[in-house]
Amino acid sequence: MQLLIDDVQLWDGTGSVAQPKMSVEVRDGRIHWVGPASQWQGSRPTIRVIDGRARTLIPGLMDCHVHYSGPGGPEWIARFTDPLPEISMRAIELAETSLRSGVTTARDVGAPHGVSIRLARAARAGEIRAPNIRAAGTWIAHRGTYVSFARLFEETSELRNAIKTEIESGADLIKVALASWNEGARPQDAPDIPFDKKLLAVAVEEAHKAGFKIACHANDPTSCRIAAHAGVDSLEHGMFLEAQDLEAMVKNKTYLVPTMSVWDAMLYYARAVDWPEIRKRRAEDLRHGSRVAVTGAIKAGVKIALGTDAGGGAARHGRIAREAELMVECGMEPHDALVAATSSAAALIGESERGTIEEGKIADLVLLDGNPLESISALRLIAAVFRDGRRVGQI
Ligand SMILES: [Zn+2]
Q1: 107 and 143, same domain (yes or no)
Q2: pLDDT tens, 208-256?
């Protein structure tokens, strides 16, 4: 299997500026050669050539926060308790939708019944058209908080066991969720967030001891404070992060995965589906809080990796471009939004062979009919997606 993406503007994600009139040769799933189109030594008539003129080639995009078990939309939570056969079939379809939108690697950060682990395995084996998936199995949360279909714990030993069980089940990373009590579940004198500093330290220790990364859901001020100081690998959502939290994240090298698409979509549904006023206001507050936190994180120099939370909130799959647009709206340069979606995401996920276009790396590539460095919305103009050197749709 050999192909040449020819005479294209190349943004390789290594930190160099985009270069015009470049060619990239792919052989057996890897990038074999990168250089000026005029210097390519092979014979064009004998291999598959893809015309790159008026196009930009970038590394395959990475979405660090998806849930292929859910479709998003106005009733996203209810969809997680659909019958298992429906969830499983949908996950396959949504993973393909995601791939076609340019996502060649995704972190699936929580699914009921460990569906994401099975999906990641099928993707790895080439049984389905899907991104390269790194899966957290089931969310881990304190009993009485968060969603009932998470893996719930109360005692430290239960928490340690939950993490061990996820690892034994084949998870690639650990996902914990800090959240306040569900209505009526709060015991007398209990703190707002029962998954506290001490318990999170246990989770971080247990995951890191086993060589696993840990992602932490935090979307209220107290949870954000706890998570920012805990040394987790990534803080997911992070609305209401304040200056001292952002400082701690810089110090701890904790990535922020902002998932702004969720609040954007939530506000859309709040208006379009005519939610009650109180829910509309909540959507507005969350969206505002998220934008302030991301703007602050950009200024403070927090490492940022792109994540949409497609399926886990109101955001739909296949719309990664929207998240990049929102990052740029919050003050990020298009170049930095691309970094967040490629090399920065690769560093967070631990994908050393992906995330940049360099000789020897895995050929996960996206060809665009536009220039995302001029307008980030060019990420919507997908001309072709390549995963492991194969053009999606021509596997
Ligand atoms: Zn999520």
Answers
A1: yes
A2: 999 999 999 999 999 999 999 999 999 999 999 999 999 999 999 999 9
The reply to whether the predicted model has a pTM over 0.90 is yes
Strand 19-27, strand 2-10: pairing: antiparallel
Q: How far is CA 355 from CA 306, 340, 365, 390, in A?
A: 12, 10, 9, 16
When divided into structural domains, the chain yields a total of 2
Indicate which CATH number applies to the domain containing 364.
Answer: 2.30.40.10
15 CA → ligand 1 middle, Å: 30
**Ligand 1 centre distance from Cα of residue 311 (Å):** 7
Do 67 and 23 fall into the same domain? no
In the numeric block, the tokens 């009932």 are attached to: 148
Task: Locate all alpha helices (DSSP H) within 13-155, ordered by sequence.
Answer: 76-79, 84-100, 115-124
Distance 309 CA to ligand 1 centre (A): 5
Determine the Cα angle at 287 with ends 332 and 200, to 5°.
85
Please give the structure tokens belonging to residue 146. 């968060």
What are 322's two structure tokens?
Answer: 């929207």
CA of 211 to the centre of ligand 1 (A): 22
Q: Same structural domain for residues 12 and 114?
A: no
196: domain CATH number?
3.20.20.140
38 lies in which domain range?
Answer: 2-59+355-391
- What is the percent of the chain with per-residue pLDDT over 90, rounded to a whole number? 98
Amino acid symbol at 373: L
